[in-house]
Amino acid sequence: MNEKANEIYDRILSDNPHDFYALLNKGVCLMRLYDIKAEPSLLTNAATLLQKAHQVNSGDVSALINVGVCNLKLNKADKALNYLEKARRLEPDNATLNYNLACAYSKLGNVSHALDYLKKAVEADRAFKSRAKSDPDFNNIKNTDEFKTITS
Question: Which residue from 48, 53, 73, 92 has the highest number of Cβ atoms inside 10 Å of its Cβ?
Fold first, then answer.
């Protein structure tokens, strides 16, 4: 399904290489394909498309969040944090953004920031409680009392 969608987005982008939604959606499709195939080049290509989408529409946080997620999956937490912090300046109360900021800060060893952003994410969307419990990005803080309180 994602491969067929990518073909369609390729056709759209051949006609209009600056189509924001085609850039964004193709980037997200490549991220989903990575989840299936685990080929890092898919994430690299996704990040490139998502960066272009952000250039086309700099006011939309979804491209920035997804570039951040690509970098988290590539174990480039510093780079991820750069994009996620840009998104935070645009939409500080976005639950998905705050969850991914928590992931980035956790991977970088900044426990207090990780827990602060995780708390914000869970307060906005309780679904992040169970997700955080199984997310390997939080392995270094899962045994803290505050993590257990946030996710209980």
Answer: 53
For 93-103, what is each residue's pLDDT tens digit?
A: 999 999 999 99
Q: How many CB atoms lie within 10 A of CB 93?
A: 10
Q: State which fold the 1-91 domain adopts.
A: 1.25.40
Res. 130 pLDDT band, cuts 50 70 90: very high
Chain centroid, CA 123 distance in Å? 19
Find the radius of gyration of the CA atoms of the chain. Answer: 16
Does the reported pTM lie above 0.70?
A: yes
Instruction: Return d(Cα 95, Cα 42) in angstroms, integer.
Output: 26
Quick check: 102 and 81 in contact, CB under 8 A? no
CB 152 within 8 A of CB 117: no
Cα end-to-end span (Å), the chain: 36
Q: Where are the domains of the chain?
A: 1-91, 93-152
pLDDT in tens, 42-55: 989 998 999 999 99
Count the residues in the chain.
Answer: 152
- On whether the CB atoms of residues 65 and 91 are closer than 8 A, the answer is no
| C-alpha torsion 68→48→39→27, nearest 10 | 80
